[in-house]
């Protein structure tokens, strides 16, 4: 007689980008083990791969292409899965500004907010005859760029990933039909003003954030805590 199986609960989560509701389940022991091994390794690619595996396993709605989802949707989804798996509290290290000593605190994941910019323009006019349609960067694109040691290459890697298509008066050109080299040469041939607009689109991409205060055990004074990058939420 086989052992009984645990009935995994299903939860509904609303995506940030398009408000689509999808179903998720908590991660199980095998998936938590995979994540812990990756975090201990401190290897960015290994951490990224483990997050992908957990998402592929825990997103139950059919026909969801994780590779094409915006980075902030992936991050929000993962934190929601983590919340349903291990609870709403997450332990992070905070530095006391007066003593410069670190202390551990538990923060409430349910208090995460999504910061959106009203100036996030996806249609960028380069000239009277030329324009660019932008898209939000994917999680994979951000992780690939993070492996670059050169900051300039890192920025170019992310920005070129944000371009969806180029258009003129006659045609629209989907950048997926062109090589990375061709796309980089196109960006390098743009005026600096256009590049700054493209970069502004990326910098104003919606992001998840925790903004609050905790009490320092050393001074008994309030210390502001802001988590605004994905890895901040791993302590």
What does this entry look like structurally?
This protein is α+β, with helices and mostly antiparallel strands. The longest helix has 16 residues, at 71-86. Helix 1 runs antiparallel to helix 2 (44-58), helix 2 (44-58) packs across helix 3 (71-86) and helix 4 (139-146) runs antiparallel to helix 5. It folds into two domains: 1-87, rbstp2171 (2-Layer Sandwich), CATH 3.30.2220; 117-203, no CATH class. The chain has helices at residues 29-41, 44-58, 71-86, 139-146, 151-162, 180-188, 192-203, and strands at 11-14, 21-24, 89-95, 102-108, 113-115, 123-125, 131-134, 163-167, 172-174, 207-215, 222-227. The protein is built from seven helices and eleven strands. It is globular. The chain has a four-stranded antiparallel β-sheet. Helices cover 36% and strands 23% of the residues. It starts with 10 loop residues before the first strand and ends in an 8-residue tail after the last strand.
Describe the secondary-structure layout:
Layout: E1 11-14, E2 21-24, H1 29-41, H2 44-58, H3 71-86, E3 89-95, E4 102-108, E5 113-115, E6 123-125, E7 131-134, H4 139-146, H5 151-162, E8 163-167, E9 172-174, H6 180-188, H7 192-203, E10 207-215, E11 222-227
Antiparallel strand pairs: 1-2, 3-4, 5-10, 6-7, 7-8, 8-9, 10-11
Determine the mean pLDDT: 87
- The total tally of domains equals 2
Tally of helical runs? 7
- Strand coverage percent: 15-25%
CATH architectural label of the largest domain: 2-Layer Sandwich
Shape: globular
Order of helical and strand elements: EEHHHEEEEEHHEEHHEE
Distance N to C terminus: 43 Å
Helix content: 25-40%
Q: Biggest β-sheet, characterized?
A: 4 strands, antiparallel
Summing up helix and strand content along with how strands pair, one would put the structural category as alpha+beta
> How large is the radius of gyration?
21 Å
| Order of adjacent strands in the largest pleated sheet | 6-7-8-9
Unreliable stretches covering 5 or more consecutive residues = none
Number-wise, the strands total 11
Task: Quote the CATH topology of the largest domain.
Answer: rbstp2171
CATH class of the largest domain, anyone? Alpha Beta
